Amino acid sequence: MKLRRYMVACAIAAGATAVAFTLANVQTFDSIFGEAERTTIDYRLNTSSNDAMDSEVAMVMFDTATIRLVPYLEPFPRAVLADLITAASLNGAKAIGLDVYLDRVYPELNAWDNGDARLRDAIARAGNVVLVAPTEGSDSVRHLRRPDPYFADVAAAVASADLPTPGDVLRDAGVAIQTEEGLIPGFALALYAVGRGLDL
């Protein structure tokens, strides 16, 4: 009888240890429960009563047909981005987010279509453009790779583009990212703050 109790106690202890280890190991936890959680998130969002037509947010996406119209793909023509920002600004956009990393200028292309200069001018005139930037480094020490100052200096804000959710579907984003420079706002938070006139 004592041996049986001892074996049960050992089994419970081993099970508790395994569960604790699994919960402590984020990657293991995500591989077991992550996909199920993402599926339920998708279901809850798809069955919610929110009407997308009531949204104050508009997204401009580049599809295959659009890309066929541009003269080159890399970088995406800055003149086209400038025209989009100008159009959004003239139509009353309170905040404009440009989810294109402007890591450098292209003098040879600028000489051809004046794209860099037009984009910088459009960002400056709109006065409410948020630019994205990636972070690099370890989880404990991250550094924001800011856009080229040519663009960043005239933007309303620079925000982190880091997305914690794996896969092709965007389900969440960081509100702020801790870096060696301090807290950096996430893209959504920066757009909200600029649109509402709040001090980030």
Short description:
By secondary structure, the protein is α/β, with parallel strands linked by helices. The protein has helices at residues 2-24, 26-46, 64-69, 78-90, 107-113, 115-126, 149-152, 187-196, and strands at residues 96-98, 129-133, 135-137, 142-144, 157-160, 176-179, 182-185. Strand 3 (135-137) and strand 4 form a beta hairpin.
How would you describe this protein?
It is built from eight helices and seven strands; from the N terminus they run H-H-H-H-E-H-H-E-E-E-H-E-E-E-H. The chain is α/β, with parallel strands linked by helices and 200 residues long. A hairpin with a 2-residue loop joins strand 6 and strand 7. Helix 4 packs parallel to helix 6 (115-126). The radius of gyration is 23 Å and the shape is elongated. The chain starts with a helix and ends with a helix. The relative contact order is 0.10.
Layout of secondary structure:
Layout: H1 2-24, H2 26-46, H3 64-69, H4 78-90, E1 96-98, H5 107-113, H6 115-126, E2 129-133, E3 135-137, E4 142-144, H7 149-152, E5 157-160, E6 176-179, E7 182-185, H8 187-196
Parallel strand pairs: 1-2, 2-5
Antiparallel strand pairs: 3-4, 6-7
Helix pairs in contact: 4-6
User: Largest sheet, described in full?
Assistant: 3 strands, parallel
Distance between the termini: 66 Å
Q: Outline, from the CA principal axes?
A: elongated
Note the beta-strand portion.
Answer: 5-15%
Instruction: For the largest sheet, list the strands in their spatial order.
Output: 1-2-5
What string gives the helices and strands in order? HHHHEHHEEEHEEEH
Class computed from helices, strands and strand pairing: alpha/beta
